[in-house]
Amino acid sequence: MNNSVGNTARLLGAGLRALLVLTVICGVFYPLAVTGIAQVAFDDKANGSEIKDKSGHVVGSSLIGQRYDLPKHDRDDPKEAAEPDLKWFQPRPSNGLGSNSVNTRYSLILSGATNKAADNPDLVKLVSDAKEAVIADNSTATYRVEPSDVPADAVTSSGSGLDPDISPEYARIQVHRVAERNRLGVEQVEELVRDSTRGRTLGFMGEPRVNVLELNTALKALTGS
């Protein structure tokens, strides 16, 4: 009887010591080591890939898109559709980008695709309406957007619905409208797009892309608005 109690006590003691040691190693030392390595080697990514304006304020993350809408006439009316603020470059269509009282262009409401088939009448109407809006919004007195110029990412959302990037083609058809609304030269805005365009990762993965938040942050610095 005494031997049995003694063996049980030793086993419990060994288990508790193992628990304590593993807790210190896995719960303290390992997280600190990983955090330290990340802060030294990948400082930007480890801190959320933050984007700052010229005054040093964080305006968002380069990993998650934002909307650029005009203020609603009635903030308390959930049925009132948001209208895009056309002085800014616009992101891909998405229902996952919303607003809050802290940063009115940076609140995640939901993430996900529509899951509608390509021949779904609702999706077809959404794409058709979006295409008409892109043509109307981006055509100016001196520049006309042709239907064939509208790229797919201008009228469809990404799988996550939170895509921060647009294609260079979509950015370029917005150049004349942004230049006109901000009283800038077309060449100035085209240069912003070129500077914000990234190529394929490692030269072969993905597609060329433009980060909308980075582009609009550069635009804000240029206009001072």
What distinguishing features does this structure have?
225 residues, 6 helices, two-stranded antiparallel ribbon, single chain, mainly alpha, 2 domains
Q: Count helical runs.
A: 6
Main β-sheet, spatial strand arrangement: 5-7-6
Distance between the termini: 83 Å
Q: Using the CA coordinates, give the radius of gyration.
A: 25 Å
Q: Give the overall pLDDT as a whole number.
A: 85
Could you state the order of secondary-structure elements as H and E? HHEEEEHEHHEEH
Please mark out the parts with pLDDT under 50 across 5 or more consecutive residues, or reply none: 97-103
Q: Describe the sheet with the most strands.
A: 3 strands, antiparallel
The 3D shape can be described as: elongated
Q: What is the tally of beta strands? A: 7
Characterise this structure.
There is one protein chain. The protein has 225 residues and is mainly α. It has 2 domains: 2-44; 50-223, no CATH class. The protein is built from 6 helices and 7 strands. The strands form 3 sheets. Strands 5-7-6 form a 3-stranded antiparallel beta sheet. The longest helix is centred in the N-terminal third of the chain and has 40 residues, at 2-41. It is elongated and about 95 Å long. The chain starts with a helix and ends with a helix. The model is unreliable at 97-103 (pLDDT under 50).
Summarize the structure.
The chain has 6 helices and 7 strands. It is mainly α and 225 residues long. It folds into 2 domains: 2-44; 50-223, no CATH class.
